[in-house]
Hints:
Layout: E1 7-12, H1 18-31, E2 36-40, H2 46-56, H3 65-89, E3 93-97, H4 100-109, H5 115-125, E4 133-138, H6 141-150, H7 163-179, E5 184-188, H8 193-209
Amino acid sequence: MTPRGRFITFEGGEGTGKSTQARRLAAHLRAQGRDVVETREPGGSPGAEAVRHVLLSGAAKPLGPQAEALLFAAARADHVDQLIRPALTAGKLVVCDRFYDSTRVYQGAVGDVPLDLLDTLEQVAADDARPDLTLILDVPVTVGLERAAGRGAGADRFEAEDAAYHERVRAAFLALADEAPERCAVVDASGDADMVAAEIARIVEARLFAPAEGAGA
Length: 217
């Protein structure tokens, strides 16, 4: 049987550079001869991309955080079934810009959706497709919002929230990393993009591809 592939997710607040660094990591891994699938959430499959517009346009915001969590889970279930699980089963590396930790932060920690509901949605949507490594990119909120505004694409549903909201998001991601240190690694993403990419590559190699202690002895 083909060994299961590895699943790497990027998380963090707005303007932390997740999309850029996910692309750079995928390119780095391909240069090593690894078979890599790049994807994102919400989205990543035709059904999930349709839900993405509803979520990021703000159309679902009046329905409340619980409804948003349900929509994210529906998109995630399609994404996992159509793309992530088949890629992992085929032994590929999957690099995803956001996954279920974003739901736990934005709708859970900040939106007050009950944890037991999020656990249930996570089990239904992700099931066995769990990240092996989650890279949480961290920058001061003022830096992240300046970067997001500098993209010139207009603020989406979450970028448009005030600074206090984003401070809560940042704190929740850091708390999540503290709760799951075996899976999560916090990366200071406030510096030069090349330096950040190099640190991410180092973490990935050490966490996922380092030879087992005593191997070959």
